[in-house]
Fold this protein.
Amino acid sequence: MSGRAATPPAIEPGSVKLAVPSDWFDLMADGDDREATRGRCAELIRLSYPDTPAERREEFIDVLMFRYDHLFANGVLMNGVVTAALPSTDGKVLWQVYAGVVAVPPGPPELDLGALLSRVFDEAFLDGMAYVERFTTDMGIGIGFMAQSPVEVPVSREAGVPPHPAGLAGVLSCPSAGGKGLLVMGTCLDPGQVRDLAGLVAVMAGHSVFVTVDSG
């Protein structure tokens, strides 16, 4: 599938051909076409909750559209949710995966992974960094990482419940000369699933490519 054109500051216009599973539901797939997006969300809710009253389903759709508007305004190109059984443990997963385009310094001889990640994440999150790896992607190079960090929900403070650990996995894929890169991120509430999540994120980022816009 193809993502919508991305034009962040200092990044030339273009499109991204995203590598996603064949049954992937991408909230951002229709770009700025809200009517098409709402139609797809309505069908998803109808199939997921066939016995729920129509009025209630409309509320679910409104929530998805609220999220769509927020993500679109912040330059997110792809947002999908994975809900399935995990073959390695038979446990259930609830993962969220995002993708966006970021500027990458041109032609660095060696990327400073710590400095690069510090630009993207709060330093407190980096305290939980578990693993960083550099590998080859269809674009050129990939930088993958996994981390864990406490996530505190506002209601937890009122109830006296301690922050819950969560898992984060991400891959930055870009040409070796730099310029622009695709950052694919995934989050999971069960930190024990972060390695499996990292595998999915690595495949998505590793096989996604930028498509040149034909100005003619």
Q: What stands out?
A: The CA atoms of residues 4 and 40 lie 16 Å apart.
